[in-house]
From TrEMBL, chains A, B:
Presence of the UniProt keyword Repeat in the record: no
Classification via SUPFAM superfamilies: PLP-dependent transferases
Species name: Aspergillus tubingensis (strain CBS 134.48)
Oligomeric and partner information: Homodimer.
InterPro entries recorded: ALAT1/2-like, Aminotransferase_I/II_large, PyrdxlP-dep_Trfase, PyrdxlP-dep_Trfase_major, PyrdxlP-dep_Trfase_small
Name of the molecule in the record: Glutamate pyruvate transaminase
GO biological process: L-alanine catabolic process
């Protein structure tokens, strides 16, 4: 009886209502976002089961290696940041600075910073300017100037709710309809393809070179561009993720010049996703803005018309505060009338979270040498940096030991993106389940070990290659060993 | 020489770059959002001038009555909320609860709540579930159940970054192309028309009845609907803002039934923007969910297929924490497959700000009777409520004194939306400046008094009527007198 009732209700709900899968926005339906897809949902179900005391699973913890979410795992927030934020949330604490200092170790620079920020934003509960609070944009401009050695202006900066909303804003303004195209690296972070799907615009893929540490091959990009143009696509922009996601690659000055040459020659807006700019293990991070300004000095005229939007975020790096949704983008070389439209667009959503904006300020303007919070800041910052490097290489070494797995040496970001070569029997078994082979592998991995990674198909990969993306954020080596053991059993089973 | 150089640069920047006003997304260009438009920008410029010591202006402060931004003006945040948030930002304070209690008045319920929330979210710097942290959705479901007397389920709830992003999500999923239409009240909060512009979907306006306290006239809606259908528009949803923005109206049970009848008969998704649900001066707030469930009991069958999305926010009410960007929507009666698409859509932006989510939890689950923080909470909450009522009526009374100004008695929300009748000479003067007459009036008001309000044309109004929207958040009566004095001089000038 109950069954019948439930069935009836379900039928009614699905049949009679206005909206169904076939009449909603088809572009929403078409969008794909694997990072939080089926595997992530299943992993969350396992987590809940374990938390409820379920003993039936063959593992005792879920490892969320599918998403760059540092503080969900082991990473502690940086004390200076959080001390300032706690004062911003409860300014009445500021009225008792003596007690603060003595009881809780709030140094004078923490108190001063909170006061300075509050003097500008009034309250973190008030809307700010739609581009972000003026004082915060001033600090970001100074940070960019110091990083690059070239001027930056607060009026060109747009604070955002994480870099994702910045990307969405930029693509919304740039894409004018179904013929508009944007060059996107493959593999890529699926935000780009998903947003282009939503806008019904064209993703024009260009493959990164796995054998050359996932670098860019400008000649290959030129070919993709020519093909897209021939097919009638109006290619307007190129996305570069540097350091790379999911690849972890850190681009050389020469690779960046190649992209800027192309942008200048082909009139492409450059969208430089630089959220991993402090997650660099080998060499140094070079911003697109810096390289552009250098080239503009070296070859006067040639690069004057390049439009660059460069994004940064509090989510990654040693900050790792993705739950706060803070970030910014800088517009370089944009027509002021277009910038005014960007302003109007962001103003419709009023403003990014103000506490997240304040965190951006703290990230770009941390305690300086000689200031009271500096020593602890430095210790925490370096500890996180060294831990990430250590974990990256531990994972890399584990992959070296695994049959049929090849991985580029860690360079940056928070990810490794190994190639896996699976036996034909495994590929057949996947086909029988109507799944991509890498998805099949990742699902089995999750079921057997509780380790959640994302199949390469979620990011795009060259035909006839298989990958998965894993973060190296999870602490310890136990979970890495779980992968090694699973892999060897999997390979044996399908040999 | 300098002039020439600057001119040349401007020319280069505007002529040679890829993007210009004529080739960006035309739907972004077409979107209008007056709340943060020309007047707001000018008001901000005046504010900066005054802050820099400029004495040339005929006023000594700018009053931002253009936007519901309580904490920018006078409203203090509620202590319980901010105390918990400060502990969430700096959990190390929790390790010293004794000192906390003695030095800073953190009551035990503050400490307990922070611990409970942290046990679920782990860190406010970590991404949460894309629909929002489970514990927070549990609290929201309980709140809705208690408010309405009908069950609510956490899985039907979607935490958002303010109600605006929720509206954007819903309209993105609902609108499937240029023929899709959504019924929107006129006057309306321009988020709706702007988002429909961005989606290249049709706004189907229906006029609210000013003479009936801005109530809804279902017969008029039916006419608008029929006309839109005849013109080929596929009308899919109806937006209701209750209590109203910009009108301040609070809908009766009968008006709500009228809308739900229409939705049931015409298969319209109901988008109930209920962010002002606690800002009600006369009568009581009735949620669309409650009314729907009542009607479903009263007339079995008739309302089973109604889909309702109901929105709430931490930005308004006595909370007033708009800078934190927190909110939620509940989906009622949606096809689970459509809900899955809503989930995927929000997951592309990862999650709403976690500290804002926690604030939603505190809003819906404030200290209860007998708990240590209750007395202060109640005092603060009631103080804000009474202050808003007092200011609303003071402003209303001032409008009564003004020639050619008519205003409905305050009922709710944070706004008054008076009609103004301007002399023909003023209308001509506006025309000469190529401006709508109400825009002309508001601009003169700002220039003369520093009071920034929004012209009725920014919200939509019946042809041949003029209005402006003002919040009643600003403290004191000085600014109200500035309006009265300006108005009388303006009327005399153009008599």
């Amino acid at each position: 009886m109950t069954v019948t009732l439930t069935a009836k209700r379900t039928l009614t709900a699905s049949s009679g209502v206005r909206l169904n899968l076939d009449n909603i926005n088809p572009h929403v339906k078409a969008a794909k976002y694997a990072v939080r897809g089926e595997l992530a949902v299943k992993a969350e179900e396992y987590r809940v089961k374990l938390a409820q005391g379920d003993k039936s699973l063959p593992f005792d913890s879920v490892i969320f290696a599918n998403i760059g979410n540092p503080q969900q795992l082991d990473q502690k927030p940086i004390s200076f940041f959080r001390q300032v934020l706690s004062l911003l949330e409860n300014p009445s604490l500021l009225e008792n600075p003596e007690a603060l200092r003595t009881s809780f170790g709030y140094q004078q620079d923490v108190i001063d910073r909170a006061k300075t920020l509050l003097a500008d934003v009034q309250s973190v509960g008030a809307y700010s300017h739609s581009q972000g609070a003026p004082i915060i944009r001033d600090s970001v401009a100074k940070f960019i100037e110091e990083r690059d050695g070239f001027p930056a202006k607060p009026q060109d900066l747009y604070l955002t709710g994480g870099a994702s909303s910045g990307v969405s804003t930029l693509l919304n303004v740039i894409c004018d309809g179904p013929s508009a195209g944007v060059l996107v690296p493959i593999p890529q972070y699926p935000l780009y393809t998903a947003t282009l799907s939503l806008l019904n615009a064209q993703c024009v893929p260009y493959h990164l070179e796995e054998h050359r540490a996932w670098g860019t091959d400008v000649n290959a990009i030129r070919e993709n561009l020519a093909q897209a143009k021939a097919a009638g696509t109006d290619v307007r922009a190129i996305v570069v993720i540097n350091p790379g996601n999911p690849t972890g690659a850190s681009l050389s000055a020469e690779d960046i010049k190649g992209v800027l040459d192309l942008a200048a020659e082909e009139k492409l807006v450059v969208i430089a996703d630089e959220v991993y700019q402090t997650n660099v293990f080998t060499g140094e991070f070079i911003s697109f803005k810096k390289r552009l300004r250098q080239l503009q000095q070296e070859v006067p005229g040639k690069y004057d018309n390049v439009e660059l939007a460069s994004l940064h975020s509090v989510s990654k790096g040693m900050v790792g505060e993705c739950g706060h949704r803070g970030g910014y983008f800088e517009l370089v070389g944009f027509d002021p009338e277009v910038a005014a439209q960007v302003y109007k667009y962001v103003s419709i959503m009023l403003c990014p979270p103000v506490i997240g904006q304040c965190l951006v300020e703290l990230m770009v303007n941390p305690p300086k040498e000689g200031e009271p919070s500096r020593a602890v800041y430095e210790k925490e910052y370096n500890g996180i940096r060294d831990g990430l490097r250590k974990r990256a290489f531990a994972l890399y070494e584990a992959f070296q030991r695994m049959e049929g797995v090849e991985c580029q040496e860690p360079q940056g970001a928070m990810y490794l993106f190994p190639t896996i070569t699976l036996p034909p029997k495994a590929v057949e078994a996947a086909k029988a389940e109507n799944r991509a082979a890498d998805e099949f592998y990742c699902l089995r991995l999750l079921d057997a070990t509780g380790v959640c990674v994302v199949p390469g198909s979620g990011f795009g990969q060259k035909e006839n290659t298989l990958h998965f993306r894993t973060t190296f954020l999870a602490p310890g080596t136990d979970w890495v060993e779980r992968i090694v053991k699973f892999h060897s059993e999997f390979m044996a089973k399908y040999k």
